[in-house]
Amino acid sequence: MLLVSNREEILAVENVSFSYNGETDVLKDVSLSVMRRDYLGLIGPNGGGKTTLVKIMLGLLRASHGSARLFGISLRDSRERHKIGYVSQTAVKFDSLFPATVEEVVRMGRYGKRGLFRRLTAEDRAKTEEALAQVDMLAFRHRRVNDLSGGQKQRVFIARALAGEPSVIVLDEPTTGVDEETQEQFYTLLKDLNQRLSLTLMLVSHDLDRIAKEVSCIAVINTTLRYYDNPADAVALERSIEAHH
Amino acid sequence: MFELFEYSFIVRAFQAGMLIAIIAPAIGIFLVLRRYALIVDTLAHVSLAGLALGLFFKVNPLVTAFGVSAGASILIERLRLSRKVPSDAALAVFLSGSLAFALTLLSISGGFNVNLFNYLFGSLITVGQTDLYVIGSIGLLVLLAIALFYKELVFVSFDEEAAEVAGIPTRVINTLLIMLAGLTVAIAIPIIGALLIGALIVIPVLIALQFKRSFVATIMIAEAVSLFSVILGIFVSYYANLSAGGTIVLILVALFVLSLLRKN
Ligand SMILES: Nc1ncnc2c1ncn2[C@@H]1O[C@H](COP(=O)(O)OP(=O)(O)O)[C@@H](O)[C@H]1O
Ligand SMILES: [Mg+2]
After folding, report:
1. Domain of A212, in residue numbers
2. Cβ pair A40, A168 in contact under 8 A
3. pLDDT per position as a tens digit, B104-160
4. Coil, strand or helix: which one is A72?
5. What does the DSSP 8-state code read for residue B1?
6. Could you give the number of structural domains in chain A?
7. CATH number of A69's domain
């Protein structure tokens, strides 16, 4: 996949390989670019390396081979990592004892931006409110996160990411363990953020057929990666590949 | 009934006790939520080794206690990150290793005397004027550090990965937290005792968590519980001639049981 495009590259990995134990490759020679305004679906089976790839793209893991970039600069040298919003696979399943209100959680989205030794300002409070309004959770700001439903928690974590004024939000299997209707509302929210706020999104999922209806492009990963500009192509081609095996 | 304040040692005990009562839950909330509560006991035994060193070389044992405790906290975090041994097992090695070191050193210097007993279980009369200065300055330092790194401590406790992606130096914050815990433990030992300090750091937080309030409110409740127990504990132990540390912890345990019952 050559980068002949006039759109700005946000996140990218190039020829990345990764192994946890030094023997079996979890990722092999993977390249992927997320461009501004993309709504990328990262699809793969359980254990296919989705979370691993995400963690490399976020700088939480370092690739054994290859490189990761943010805005065209090596991720390691980048000073703009706070422009990535991250909703991890485990975020929504956080400690059930943790005492925090919706507002306290969303405010955390401002911490990285504000930096060490700085107190939050009126601007931070305004952005926190704005983010809560964007996910329609402003009325719940003083509620404890633990008292919310799964779908509401998801919205809070999206709001936390939004509060940091990100260029891209990466969501790792956010709909696990959430009922069908809540999932639909969640996809509607994401599509809205992508289209109305021109927000770049990277959504990890194992459900190709469902995600293909939402996203603008698809990367299928199972140790190696196949990229599709057109979600419909992905569904068709992946079916025929599956049929061959 | 307040004639006890005519004794300067009891005034010092109150001053030191209240300072520790304020610091303990402020650091405890992060330790409890990060499942680091066991580290407190380990650091307490490490501090004992530090105290023994001080007694052995005849320097202020509090100073050696917090030196050794701060150093060990960095080692503990390193060992935890290296994943060479399970982290709870690493703590066990530190715990019994430093207790063994303390006992050996104390037996060489001829003294399973009253000193050791006081440091294990706490005592009101152990707090000298110099101790108060040491406790005061280290205590303020710990509080200042918690205030300065409050945002980061909260974020890392709640979601370490997201915090790291947001550019928070999570390793520094983790090490800082354990160092602050080490310092808190070291300065709390003369009053509460090495074997009981874990209770003061952990139990007020556990009680506050039962109220299911916001993060800030939880800290405030824990602070109130801690101050109440320490003040009441010192009063009761003075008049009833009981161990101060033991009395304080028993009050805390009673409040904890009440807080659990209240919920149902
Ligand atoms: N921390 C880890 N240590 C060792 N192996 C791991 C670790 N995390 C994941 N793996 C392995 O790497 C592979 C890919 O995992 P992961 O990236 O989590 O896949 P996915 O997110 O697609 O389900 C799996 O085989 C998994 O068992
Ligand atoms: Mg995964």
Report:
1. 3-243
2. no
3. 888 887 666 656 777 888 887 778 888 888 889 989 999 999 999 999 999 999 999
4. coil
5. -
6. 1
7. 3.40.50.300
